[in-house]
């Protein structure tokens, strides 16, 4: 099984005592480096911490400890998966987002740091509502957006919609893990369809990090994204904007007058998206830039209907 990674040649080049923690780490780092993984050493360390269910301090304090054969075999198998391009987060099953630890698996997009800007923006807008705001997150995936919001705003409630039942199962576990499940309703839904069927109440805020990558840009993504993250989470096909078009057209029906709709966009989409926004229905308040200076979060406010 580990033939590629631990061939006789490679093994003969390994430091003696590679069944000890320090040696196993050195060996794994070399394997990951040879496979082109940039953060080879930190990834090796994370995989060993995960395998032993121990933290970094333990690895340092016990660097001379022998690894159990079963732990070593499991560690090597995980290193092999990482070397083959599987994202670290799918191997460990975890990703930190907005200071919280989220479960992830291949049914969900791995939450990205830039999406924290969407959460920050949402929390800012929710400050206008002093009592029990109601939020709807479309394309909720791991549930990272509504779970982070509900964790911060203890009086809020939210709906999380996703077309993927596999994603919603992960979102439900994340909501339970962070103690917000009783305030989060999860629905299988193609955009707003499930809300249409339920004639649900209107929301103070709608959030979304929709699939927005143009089909022609897929080939240029990192291999580990392209080959491992769910295609439905990355792209709706075509120019990447079909879900955004549906959300911009559909959201007003589910928003209170004066309510906000905020959503994430791709690095080159702000001008096109600004043109999609009907000025009779929406006020385009802002397109916020992320830490790289990329226009990332579109902030719309539903206009008050004319008297
Ligand atoms: C970019 S991911 C975002 C996941 C999560 N909100 C996050 O920020 O990490 C987009 C999500 O939208 C879902 N999705 C794709 N098309 C959809 C549609 N037509 N209606 C509802 N959800 C959809 C995907 O299943 C995926 O979970």
Write the layout of secondary structure elements.
Layout: H1 8-13, H2 21-34, H3 40-52, H4 56-61, H5 69-83, H6 88-92, E1 94-97, E2 100-103, H7 116-126, E3 134-138, H8 144-152, E4 157-162, H9 165-177, E5 184-188, H10 193-198, E6 203-208, H11 223-228, H12 231-234, H13 242-250, E7 255-264, H14 270-276, E8 282-289, E9 295-302
Parallel strand pairs: 3-4, 3-6, 4-5, 6-7
Antiparallel strand pairs: 1-2, 7-9, 8-9
Helix pairs in contact: 2-3, 2-5, 3-5, 7-8
Walk me through what this model shows:
- Strands 5-4-3-6-7-9-8 form a 7-stranded mixed beta sheet, with helices on one face.
- The protein contains 14 helices and 9 strands.
- It is an alpha/beta fold.
- The chain folds into 2 domains: 8-84, no CATH class; 98-302, Vaccinia Virus protein VP39 (Rossmann fold, 3-Layer(aba) Sandwich), CATH 3.40.50.150.
- The longest helix has 15 residues, at 69-83.
- It is elongated, with a radius of gyration of 22 Å.
- Helix 8 links the parallel strand 3 (134-138) and strand 4 (157-162).
- Mean pLDDT is 92; it is low at 1-17.
- 40% of the residues lie in helices and 18% in strands.
- S-adenosylmethionine (SAM) is lined by residues 108-109, 111, 115, 138-142, 144-145, 161-164, 167, 189-191, 209-211, 232-233, 236, 243.
- The site of S-adenosylmethionine has 26 residues, from helix 8, strand 4 and helix 12.
Question: Can you give me a brief rundown of this structure?
Answer:
It is built from 14 helices and nine strands.
CATH class of the largest domain: Alpha Beta
Ligands, deduplicated: S-adenosylmethionine
Strand residue percentage = 15-25%
Please name the CATH topology of the largest domain: Rossmann fold
Shape: elongated
Number of separate domains: 2
Order of helices and strands: HHHHHHEEHEHEHEHEHHHEHEE
* Main pleated sheet: 7 strands, mixed
The poorly predicted ranges are 1-17
Averaged pLDDT: 92
Distance between the termini: 71 Å
The name of the CATH architecture of the largest domain is 3-Layer(aba) Sandwich
Q: What would you call the structural class?
A: alpha/beta
Gyration radius, in Å: 22 Å
Name of the CATH superfamily of the largest domain: Vaccinia Virus protein VP39
Strand order within the widest beta sheet: 5-4-3-6-7-9-8
Q: What percent of residues adopt helix (DSSP H or I)?
A: 40-55%
């Amino acid at each position: 099984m580990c033939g590629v990674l631990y061939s006789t040649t490679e093994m003969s080049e390994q430091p003696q005592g590679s069944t000890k923690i320090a040696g196993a780490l050195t060996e794994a780092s070399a394997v990951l480096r040879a496979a082109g993984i940039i953060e080879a050493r930190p990834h090796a360390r994370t995989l060993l911490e995960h395998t032993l269910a121990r933290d970094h301090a333990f690895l340092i304090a016990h660097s001379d400890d022998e690894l159990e054969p079963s732990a070593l075999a499991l560690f090597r198998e995980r290193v092999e998966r990482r070397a083959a391009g599987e994202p670290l987060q799918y191997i460990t099953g975890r990703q930190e987002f907005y200071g919280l630890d989220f479960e992830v698996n291949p049914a969900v997009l791995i939450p990205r740091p830039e999406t924290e800007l969407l959460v920050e923006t949402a929390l800012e807008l929710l400050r206008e509502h002093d009592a029990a705001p109601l939020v709807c997150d479309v394309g909720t995936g791991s549930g990272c957006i509504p779970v982070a919001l509900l964790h911060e705003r203890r009086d809020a409630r939210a709906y999380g919609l996703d077309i993927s039942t596999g994603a919603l199962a992960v979102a439900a576990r994340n909501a339970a893990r962070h103690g917000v499940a009783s305030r989060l309703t999860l629905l299988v839904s193609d955009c707003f369809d499930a809300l249409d069927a339920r004639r649900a109440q209107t929301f103070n805020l709608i959030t979304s990090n929709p699939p927005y990558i143009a089909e022609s840009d897929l080939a240029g993504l990192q291999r580990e994204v392209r080959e491992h993250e769910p295609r439905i989470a990355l792209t709706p096909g075509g120019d990447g904007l079909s879900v955004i078009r549906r959300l911009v057209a559909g959201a007003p029906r589910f928003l209170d007058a004066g309510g906000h709709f905020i959503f994430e966009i791709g690095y080159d989409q702000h001008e096109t998206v600004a043109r999609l926004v009907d000025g009779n229905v929406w006020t385009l308040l802002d397109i916020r830039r992320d830490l790289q200076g990329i226009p990332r979060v579109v902030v719309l406010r539903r206009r008050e209907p004319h008297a």
